[in-house]
Amino acid sequence: MRRRRAGAITAISAFPVLVIALIVASALGAFSGAHSLSPLSSPPAVADYDQEQLENAASIMRAGHDLGLSARDQAIGVMTALGESSLRNIDYGDWETSGVTNPDGSRTTSIGLFQQQDAWGPRDARLDPYTAATLFYRAMIDRVPDRDALEPTIVAHRTQINQDPDHYARYWPRAVALIEALSGAESGLGS
Asked: In angstroms, rounded to a whole number, what is the distance separating the alpha carbons of residues 55 and 173?
């Protein structure tokens, strides 16, 4: 029987954090002068999430950055995905889980990080984290031109057109902490 050295075990356990750090580093020129995460440490805000969730948050941030959006807008994107799917790219929605229908009585067709229905775009686009985030941000830009003057939950509500305008408010502090942890930079957004 071969014994593993302690260093090998440490390297194996640090591997997921390293992968996440590399994904985030490539995703995030999101803030000017952003620092990358140390591959051997995991900030507390990041420790609460698994690799899939962190990669999805990084994709949301990268899409916002690529569109020239602010850290606040990126945090609104992450907040919205937290409120819709817990940053999980799920291929089913409210109809399948609880029989929820649209106001006109038709079945909902929500999928992906943002639980976007058919009108948002093709299924493959809604299930691709970067593309789904881009769809969300473009809708946000079109539907909420005064977003900087509004509470983040209202911006998300007007973009998603959901029933409860305050639904996303509880996710704001987590979204801010998450984007700051992933970028390694203070956003100035508070929480």
From this structure: 19
Is residue 132 within 8 A of residue 112, CB to CB? The reply is: yes
pTM for this one? 0.77
Instruction: Tell me phi and psi for residue 100, to 5 degrees.
Output: -70, 140
Residues 27, 62 contacting (CB under 8 angstroms): yes
Opening angle at CA 41, ends 51 and 84, nearest 5 = 30
Summarised one tens digit per residue, pLDDT across range 60-74 is 999 999 999 999 999
65 close to 74: Cβ distance less than 8 angstroms: yes
Per-residue pLDDT tens digits for 19-63: 444 445 444 444 433 333 333 344 557 888 999 999 999 999 999
| Distance linking the first and last C-alpha atoms of the chain | 51
Burial class (CB in 10 A: 0-12, 13-18, 19+), 136: buried
Q: How many CA atoms lie within 13 A of 169 on its CB side?
A: 7
